[in-house]
């Protein structure tokens, strides 16, 4: 009884702050334009001189240092709208170093925030509570830094840094999420995230309705010509109509067919990320957060957009996470949920590999190439060696058989289009240190809500099921471990872990009212 009393007293001493929905919306309305303006300033400064690179990231770091929630709000705008703003100013932009450097803006800001977060998490009180999750992150980051040095010597620093950015995003997101969760409730952070995406959803609807005009207004053709500056496909994107044709693909992106052969094709809009698969993952994460916040009405918008997008990986992320949460809700049994997850994973991977190998699906071919690379060199080839974001891809190592499938020449020697395949190809067996972070996230989750001696399921548990799903989904898609997918999920899950089971204070500054509740909704 005395121990329980002491635990409750400690919880009351350090409550978690929540804002009302109206207050969160008000702050988003205020800080979204500021975040977008900072990104615009960053683009303009870099167009003048590469030496002005640190200015805006330092400003954003200062914001996060002094007001973590405000800093996170500004960061969400950089994350979601970075590529859209780069596209607006892409005419006349040089590929190297301006364009390539700008693509790393959200990661640079993320890293600055993570350094600040780690400094705060090193305080003894928080370190004792969270070191079981922080240590795996630090070890995985050290492993990535080591293989970056190896890869830089083999494939060049640009390729190595691109994959540092790709694979480190979920790791630094954990640190930022833990730091936010020390003081701010998940409901507040999650609401700020989904409200920040509203503008992106509106822009994607316009893109789908009038793509030719949209691409002209936003200079998307110039953006893609920069993106493919060193690749043959860049020479085919002459105008908005060619770009719209480029984005018209087989429904669910099945590699064995072309749009002319398929019964059903779809126009895959890129949204503000200007990459259809990554934007589909962003929509999927918004749907998961909406469910976790008991705002499932958002699905009335999200689900039709995801259907039109026709991205199987992002769709399965949402579907499988919901299935696991339903099992958890009905059974309230952790072992049964774990067993269900294993069964889903085995079935998904088996079906995906079987069908993919039969149809020469480039995601499956890319994963198997990674497995082959692992077998030939268990200690990895180095970050940036192989992968479709690497210099090898720019140099034409990845051969294309028509517009919808890889030829056998070259692909068997390089991992492509699979986050897991590329990771195990580049770092080898030490990749287990990376996956250990996902496992640590799942183990650290404060599952459910305590009710006497029982643990009752809560909606936010669905995000942790999404961690398991996205980890497996990385077998078939390289975008699965990007900041828009695994990165955002890791941040929000870490925020929940940072909240723990502490008491929450609901604060409405306009009315100066305080209210208490035991656990978040």
Structural features, described:
It is globular and about 65 Å long. The strands form 3 sheets. A 3-stranded mixed sheet has the order 1-6-7. It is mainly α and 521 residues long. It has one domain. β4 and β5 form a beta hairpin. It has 23 helices and 7 strands. The two termini are 27 Å apart.
Main attributes of the structure:
single chain; mainly alpha; 67% helix; 521 residues; disordered N terminus
| Main sheet attributes: strand count, strand direction, barrel closure | 3 strands, mixed
The residue fraction in helices comes out at: 55-70%
- Can you count the beta strands? 7
Structural class: mainly alpha
The sequence of SSEs as H and E is HEHHHHHHHHHHHHEEHHHHHHHHEEHHEE
User: What shape does the CA trace take?
Assistant: globular
Radius of gyration: 22 Å
Strand order of the largest sheet: 1-6-7
- Provide the number of structural domains: 1
Q: Note the total helix count.
A: 23
- Stretches where pLDDT falls below 50 for ≥5 residues? 1-9, 255-262, 400-411, 511-521
What's the end-to-end separation, in Å?
A: 27 Å
Average per-residue pLDDT, rounded, comes to 85
How much β-strand is present in the residues? under 5%
Give a brief description.
The chain has 521 residues and is mainly alpha-helical. The chain is built from 23 helices and seven strands.
